[in-house]
Design brief:
This protein has 16 helices and 18 strands. The protein is an alpha/beta fold. The strands form three sheets. A six-stranded mixed beta sheet has the order 3-4-2-1-5-6, with helices on both faces. Strands 7-10-11-12-9-8 form a six-stranded mixed beta sheet. Helix 1 links the parallel strand 1 and strand 2. Helix 8 packs parallel to helix 9, helix 9 crosses helix 12 and helix 14 packs across helix 15. It is globular, with a radius of gyration of 26 Å.
Length: about 475
């Protein structure tokens, strides 16, 4: 661990000084690289928290170790005096250093404290208060994802902010749905079109104007007259649509499952497309995300043999702490957390004479592997179909870690509901699901659909809307 410095040498009035909380570095281990020309301070209390968590069995342990390694790489062999002045942050071999990193050890004296020092958060706030008194001309900002800590800091006169660098949007209502719904007829909004027939398919080339300015590749256009078009090419001035039959979409099947509405139909269309490597399904509870993904996965694994195996995983806060206390192998430990998979498998076979026998048969025939996020890091999955449930509980960094596990011939299906986030320090705008949707929009081998409605039952629909 690098040596720490005295407070007197840390700051300068020319730049803003950002003090990072541990939850920021856990959320994004590379966060300290994202403050441009400004100074970054890591309190010793934060280093101690990272050190405490780095060897735990939680998923965040790897993030803690990565953050510590980055701090060590930047500080290197710098002397205490150099750390006090601020070690330049180098982001790449070709990029000149920009901004600096310091480590703060000295704790506030009792006569300068605002809060009791019995909590780490309070200790950090007190230390920043002492910094402000020592350098009244400096500008200090606490960056933390803990709302309560931000409130306490502001109460002590310290500006405090959330970490926004990886947020794609400020309002989830601005998030793309993956389709454009047009009232009346879509063609009433089109002044110019070039239509061609190729290999039994109809294509329309239209200028990117009006309602088509924001649409991008692998998004859909739906109107009230039954027209469905999928954008297969998009340039700055034109888009090319594949004309789809609504009737054919509604009658497509995956392992006996048919879509209940047009949104499920276009989602199933993407799921079954062999050229699409990433499908992102977002929607309220009961909108059909899991059963669509599972039906398509079994269809493509058992029937068409496109993939060798199905890998199912999910993220919940409890998963990280509790998996070690459950009996059995990793597969057996994960099954209680992935009950949604087996529940939906039963739903797919509810009309069979022996539902349990059918499910057992499928589990024996289909190579389904239940994996913990703890064991996904460092692996590469080839010719696999990966289903990631509860993606709204993943951070952007965790999402990147999982998606980059996809090897050749692998398809990833991400499922989530931004209205049901259970992970501390995550919100709909900072969720990994939102991050994924924003970053992969326009990816030619990926697509997303915001599922609508709650077909599960009238009770579930009323509860989703009113509770």
């Amino acid at each position: 661990m690098p040596r720490a410095v005295k407070l007197e040498s840390i700051t300068s009035p020319q730049t803003t000084t950002y003090i990072l909380d541990s939850n920021v570095l856990i959320h994004d281990p590379n966060a300290l690289l994202n403050f441009d020309e400004h100074r970054v301070i890591i309190p010793m209390t934060v280093l101690e928290e990272l050190d405490h968590l780095k060897n735990s069995k939680q998923t965040i342990a790897a993030d803690c170790r990565q953050a510590i390694r980055l701090i060590d790489n930047i500080v290197g062999n710098a002397s205490p005096e150099e750390i006090g002045r601020g070690v330049p942050i180098t982001r790449g071999e070709q990029d000149p250093p920009q901004g600096s990193l310091s480590i703060m050890m000295e704790h506030a004296k009792d006569n300068l404290t605002h809060l009791s020092n019995n909590l780490n958060d309070n200790q950090i706030i007190n230390d920043i208060c002492q910094l402000q008194k020592a350098r009244p001309e400096g500008e200090f900002v606490l960056v933390t994802k803990d709302i309560n800590m931000r409130l306490k800091a502001r109460g002590c006169g310290i500006p405090a902010e959330d970490y926004h660098n990886d947020q794609q949007i400020s309002d989830v209502n601005l998030l793309s749905k993956g389709f454009l719904e047009v009232e009346g007829s879509f063609w009433d909004n089109v002044d110019q079109v070039n239509t061609e027939q190729t290999n039994g398919h109809t294509y329309h080339t239209l200028p990117r104007t009006g309602i088509l300015e924001e649409i991008t590749v692998n998004e859909f256009i739906i109107d009230e007259q039954g027209f469905v078009g999928r954008v297969i090419q998009a340039t700055d001035d034109k888009i090319r649509l594949l004309h789809l039959s609504e009737e054919s979409l509604m009658h497509q099947k995956a392992w006996g499952l048919q879509p209940l509405d047009i949104h499920q139909a276009i989602a199933l269309h993407l799921l079954l497309d062999p050229d699409i490597q990433l499908v992102n399904l977002n929607g309220p509870a009961g909108s059909g995300k899991t059963i669509l993904a599972l039906a398509a996965a079994i269809e493509m694994t058992v029937a068409s043999k496109q993939y060798r195996r199905i890998i199912a995983t999910r993220s919940t806060r409890g998963l990280d702490e509790d998996i070690g206390y459950l009996p059995g192998t990793e597969q057996e430990k994960m099954e209680p957390w992935l009950g949604a998979i087996t529940d939906n498998m039963e739903a797919l076979h509810r009309d069979d004479e022996n539902t349990n026998g059918s499910v057992d048969y499928i589990l024996n025939q289909v190579p389904i592997h239940f994996k913990s996020l703890n064991y996904i890091r460092g692996r590469s999955f080839q010719e696999s179909l990966i289903i990631i449930d509860e993606c709204q509980n993943l951070t952007p960094h965790q999402m990147k870690t999982i998606i980059t596990r996809a090897g050749m011939g692998t398809k990833v299906i991400c499922l989530g509901n931004l209205a049901q986030i259970d992970t501390p320090y995550l919100s709909p705008t900072s969720s990994g699901l939102t991050y994924l949707t924003g970053r992969f929009r326009g990816f030619e081998f990926g697509g997303m659909v915001q599922l609508e409605g709650v077909p599960r039952s009238a009770l579930a629909a009323f509860a989703e809307e009113n509770l």
